[in-house]
Write a structure and sequence with these properties.
By secondary structure, the protein is mainly β. It has one domain. It has two helices and ten strands. The strands form two sheets. Strands 1, 2, 3, 5, 6, 7, 8 and 10 form an eight-stranded mixed beta sheet that branches. A two-stranded antiparallel sheet has the order 4-9. The chain starts with a strand and ends with a strand.
Length: about 140
């Protein structure tokens, strides 16, 4: 998807929205061509540079779902929007983690020009995040 740009470094994803990306998009849509991304140190950082979103609606309940290639034991999550913590979650075992974000909190913190969502994940072991993991942040116009 040319509206998205993905940069990978050790333990960190950076997704830049060159244009608003509506509805659900996967890590593969963002540019992750491999079937999964291995988080070796147990720490993941995903930064989504959303840019200018003031003229668009956030999804009713913004959602992020990380899918794993195998069952994981424990994970802890912290999500920040524009530098403010909007979610802390502990997840116990499974093949996926779902993070439901507060639209209301995000609207209160929305900036005029730059908006950044940062997701921190800590795992109890090495984990493979599948490329069909997705984010659903902005609602398509007219919905």
């Amino acid at each position: 998807m040319k509206d998205l740009e993905l940069r990978l470094t050790d333990g960190e994803f950076k997704i830049k929205m060159n244009k608003p990306t509506f509805d659900k998009f996967t890590l593969k849509d963002a540019g992750l061509q491999e079937d999964y991304y291995r988080v070796e140190g147990g720490n993941l950082r995903l930064k989504v540079e959303m840019g200018y979103v003031q003229d668009y609606k956030l999804f009713k309940m913004p959602i992020i779902e990380f899918k794993y290639s195998e069952n994981i034991h424990d994970s802890e999550w912290v999500v920040e929007f524009n530098g403010v913590n909007i979610l802390e979650k502990k997840d116990h075992s499974g093949h996926a983690t779902v993070l439901l974000l507060s639209r209301k909190k995000m609207l209160e913190l929305e900036h005029r020009h730059e908006n950044n969502l940062v997701i921190h994940g800590d795992f109890s072991e090495e984990v493979d995040i599948k490329n069909d993991s997705f984010l659903n942040l902005l609602e398509a116009p007219g919905q």
